[in-house]
Design goal:
By secondary structure, the chain is mainly alpha-helical. About 75% of the residues lie in helices and about 0% in strands. Helix 5 runs parallel beside helix 11. The protein has one domain.
Length: about 270
């Protein structure tokens, strides 16, 4: 039977987060550069034009899996079981996460208001899928609601934020996570101060939820609720969040505070 290392044996420090974050940024740059080079090839460009929606879905799924693998690689943990434990994935969502999801809905509605009043730049990928995605949209919506939030939160709040907190204070760790997220939402935040404000509010909320509840499922719930407002009608996401109360409300125990003091020797 495999035993997880004790809390005294394992510590995530900022060096773990910095290495992972820089690697992910370089990876994103390489993928973007590869796509741009492919578009200058007649054959590849023609194929990408025909299959751009399917390609976008496959690339998103591939990147999600790659992010999880890279985060585990830089976590310096001996097993996936340990990573699940220290990232907070083994803790159930709580009522705090459920209420925080409604706060995320409020931020998303503000962002939608900005789109209607031309204060926020709409998501070009989502807009593209809605207009022309066809069958590919059947995968895009579950990706936005489930796969994307799961990957982003497990890596962003479950690992990176926790690792930064192993070396830095709450404020600096949150600022670093916001900076990391900005790099992957550059198009949106550079075209609208409203979008920057809404997304920053969401990222601060997610870091606060991770800090106070430790369960990364609460962060996934908040992120999914935010995205649901962007892609679903209000009766659908309202009903979905209300049904999640059956899961979140069934947990009656207090959530432990995030404490990470770890150092793995290899």
């Amino acid at each position: 039977m495999m035993h997880s290392p004790s809390q005294e044996q394992i510590t995530w420090k900022a060096r773990n987060a910095w290495r992972c974050a820089i690697f992910l940024l370089i990876l994103e740059f390489i993928i973007h550069l590869w796509i741009q080079i492919a578009r200058h090839n007649a054959t590849a460009s023609h194929w990408l034009t025909i299959h751009k929606y399917s390609f976008s879905n496959c690339l998103g799924a591939f990147e999600a899996g790659l992010w999880l693998f890279i985060a585990f690689l830089f976590s310096d943990l001996p097993s996936v079981q340990c990573f699940v434990e220290y990232s907070g994935l083994n803790l159930r969502p709580t009522l705090v996460g459920w209420w925080a999801a409604w706060a995320a809905v409020g931020v998303a509605l503000l962002d939608r208001w900005g789109v209607v009043h031309a204060s926020t730049y709409p998501n070009p990928t989502g807009h593209m899928f809605y207009l022309y995605g066809g069958v590919a949209s059947l995968f895009y919506i579950p990706f936005v609601l489930l796969i994307g939030p799961f990957c982003d939160e497990l890596v962003g709040r479950g690992f990176l934020y926790s690792a930064f907190r192993g070396s830095y204070g709450l404020l600096l760790s949150t600022i670093l996570i916001i900076g990391f997220e900005v790099c992957f939402h550059w198009h949106a935040v550079t075209h609208s101060l409203c979008a920057l404000g809404c997304l920053s509010a969401l990222w601060i909320l997610l870091c606060t939820v991770r800090e106070t509840t430790r369960s990364v499922w609460n962060c996934i719930l908040c992120h999914g609720a935010y995205n649901a407002v962007q892609v679903l009608t209000w009766p659908v996401y309202f009903t979905g969040i209300m049904l999640l109360l059956l899961i979140c409300g069934s947990y009656g125990g207090p959530a432990p505070r995030l404490e990470i003091n770890i150092n793995v020797e290899k």
